[in-house]
Amino acid sequence: MEYDLLIIGGGVAGLTLAQTLQDRLKVLLVEESSLGGVASSLGCKATDECLSCGVCHFVDLKREIVFRKFNVLTDRKITSFAKSGNKFQIKTEKGEEITSQLLTVATGAAPLEVKNLSRLGGGKLPRVYSGWDVEKGLNEGIISSFRDFSSLAFIQCAGSRNFKEKRGYCSQVCCRYALRIAENLKFSFPQMNIDFYYMDLQILGKKKEKLWEIADKINLIRHLPYEVKEEEGRLSLLFEEQGVERKKYDALILSVGMVPSPGTQQTGKRLGLNFDSGGFIKSYGQGHTSCEGVFVCGTACGPKDIETAREEAQIVAEEIWRVRRG
Prior knowledge:
The protein is an alpha/beta fold and 326 residues long. The protein folds into 2 domains: 2-108 and 261-324, FAD/NAD(P)-binding domain; 111-258, FAD/NAD(P)-binding domain (3-Layer(bba) Sandwich). The protein contains 7 helices and 17 strands. It has helices spanning 12-21, 55-65, 131-137, 174-188, 208-217, 262-270, 306-324, and strands at 2-8, 27-30, 71-73, 78-84, 87-92, 97-105, 109-111, 128-130, 151-158, 193-197, 219-221, 227-231, 234-240, 244-249, 251-256, 258-260, 294-296. The strands form 4 sheets. Strands 1, 2, 3, 4, 5, 6 and 17 form a 7-stranded mixed sheet that branches. The protein has a 5-stranded parallel sheet with strand order 8-15-9-10-11. The protein has a 3-stranded antiparallel sheet with strand order 12-13-14, with no helix packed on it. The radius of gyration is 21 Å and the shape is elongated.
């Protein structure tokens, strides 16, 4: 099988890239599991109005994929890469041999596992949720399970901004998804007291005015608790302010950030690509990587939301088209 472009990864960025170039190049997309990536698990955060969380963009993309003109291999692991002249030779675990002029890595990112945040109660204490748990449960009615809570706290930058763990970056999406979840909770349970512990608010993109309105409905606390304990059946957050302070809540949501997916790390290493300090594949502008003929887009090269991933994939698509034309 010979192609102009092989795209590795079938999430938002990979699908957008393939869709943008399908009428101009012979494209093959290879996905290790099923199409959609992380975005396929996200829930809509709308209340009685759209909060522009980006999930609708993904729903639209899925509808358009039905009419795709590019080839797809799903449930495929790539077992080897080689380069001969100006062409890449790729083999899959099912024995397919693929030749391609160009490659794009769109293997994405993953949410930090909450069990890695045991000091904040993650994976250890009851009623400690990750933002990812709530995101996945939105369409299944997880909000209704919070009805008996009178007080709830969000802790931002859970696992991000941590230079010791080589996660000194901002994941960019946590403040926005947490505020939208807070709005959903406030809409359903107006009496609930919500405290929002943060380092700084990253409110960008569409509907930022609405996000500031949401922020006015909750209690913003510019502190990051360093430990969470269970005391007398409630969750006690410990933070320093003229000594150790404690504040108790019925439940806690840890706004976890993004980390490079295993596929991003494995593929980048196999291709000999450079990584940034956070472990994401380093982009040198318009998707170029340290290896000629290999591009990167989406969250494989850094955290971003659905809308930004789509926009970036379209920019990278135009650069690939320019390069392919010589």
